[in-house]
Write a structure and sequence with these properties.
Strand order of the largest sheet: 1-4-5-3-2
CATH architecture: 2-Layer Sandwich
Number of helices: 3
Oligomer: single chain
Low-confidence stretches: 117-122
CATH class: Alpha Beta
Strand content: 15-25%
Largest sheet: 5 strands, mixed
Distance between the termini: 85 Å
Shape: globular
Amino acid sequence: MLMNKEPKPQTLTLNKEFRHAYYQGKSKATPYFICYMVRGRRGLVRYGITTSKKVGGAVQRNRARRLLRTAFLSIQDQVVPGRDFVFVAREKILTAKSWQVAAAMKKCLKTLQQPSSPTQRGAQPKPETDNSPAGNEKP
């Protein structure tokens, strides 16, 4: 029997940890969930899952959480340590198969973990300035 030497990811429980991910982290949306990634204070992989009543009743919300948890645990070996992840379930996750959620999560985490350049973050390149003195314009 093979034993996984990777430590099991811890779960986020405090509201301030979720808010930190929402406001300070990078995000990526998929049809099934929205993923927020933020640098964690510890060198561990931690994750949290939220589902609102928009997703459905208690049974549907629990199914959505199970799908997200299973998908994350199946690809945890590809996650860079020292990151916190928050997954927010969307309504479409209820009609998805587990392999579809796992594939979307794998693709999502791959794009989030790539180092981003300044232009990807929305920063615009500096405009080129004219170095001529303002008072010496020729007609």
